[in-house]
Amino acid sequence: DAKTTQPNSMESNEEEPVHLPCNHSTISGTDYIHWYRQLPSQGPEYVIHGLTSNVNNRMASLAIAEDRKSSTLILHRATLRDAAVYYCILKETSGSRLTFGEGTQLTVNP
Amino acid sequence: DAGVTQSPTHLIKTRGQQVTLRCSPKSGHDTVSWYQQALGQGPQFIFQYYEEEERQRGNFPDRFSGHQFPNYSSELNVNALLLGDSALYLCASSWPDRNYGYTFGSGTRLTVV
Q: What is the CB-side half-sphere exposure of residue B18 using CA atoms within 13 A?
């Protein structure tokens, strides 16, 4: 499984944008980039995914570098409820498992 | 619309015992995956079931087995429990297209004493 690298932790202030980086230099041409987050005492929650183009949904935006070796999850206005561990995962089109790393612990300050 | 439902929410077992955890997938989903999450770590893939068959398996011993029923619900069985099996067990469901997001349940917290 291709590996991703994320910072262990990040901090943000409430109502400010947050940019969560992820490096995946060994990504293959068919790997999708998925983001999940896990709030305390809950299971992971799907956030967004993409292949080559930037993606937007109601939760976040995903910016993918042109060479696909890195990506950034963007939360446009952080709230206290966004405090969670964020996981960046490469998912094979032919495979079906999610390989979680240690993720980024996001702290949102009021 | 109910999401993924797991039962029980908490469980305490003794070493050497056997345990069965249950999962009902989100409505419309027919693929179920199981993950183990130790404290402070990311979830680790155990196996996935589709059309009542194990389709893919992670690096877990044969003590871990599963089953999927015709209504797509699933069970995870762990035999000969070890202290190291203490973890949060998560069930995730999805549609057949493997590149949609997965929906996770809140998990079963298993403690082996």
A: 10
Q: What percent of chain B has pLDDT over 90?
A: 84
Q: Is B107 exposed, middle or buried (0-12, 13-18, 19+ CB in 10 A)?
A: buried
Contact (Cβ atoms closer than 8 angstroms) between residue B40 and residue A81:
no
Inter-chain contact B99–A95, Cβ cutoff 8 Å? no
Contacts 24+ apart (CB under 8 A), A47-54: A47/A73, A47/A86, A47/B101, A48/A73, A49/A91, A49/B99, A49/B101
Is any Cβ of chain A less than 8 angstroms from the Cβ of B42?
yes
Q: Are A78 and A17 in contact (CB under 8 A)?
A: yes
Interface touch B45/A95, C-beta < 8 Å: no
Which has the closest alpha carbon to B4: B67, B66, B89, B63? B89
pLDDT over 90 at A103, yes or no: yes
- Report pLDDT for A83: 97
Report the percent of chain A where pLDDT is more than 90.
81
What distances in angstroms separate CA B22 from CA A99, B25, B42, B52, B74, one per listed residue? 22, 10, 21, 15, 6
Contact assessment for residue A45 and residue A36, using Cβ atoms and an 8 Å cutoff: yes
Distance CA B95, CA A30 (A): 19
Cα(B90)–Cα(B45) distance, rounded to whole angstroms? 9
Contact between chains at A97 and B48 (C-beta distance less than 8 A)? yes
Question: What's the pLDDT tens digit per position in A19-52?
Answer: 999 999 999 888 899 999 999 889 999 999 999 9
Write out the two tokens for A74: 């963007």
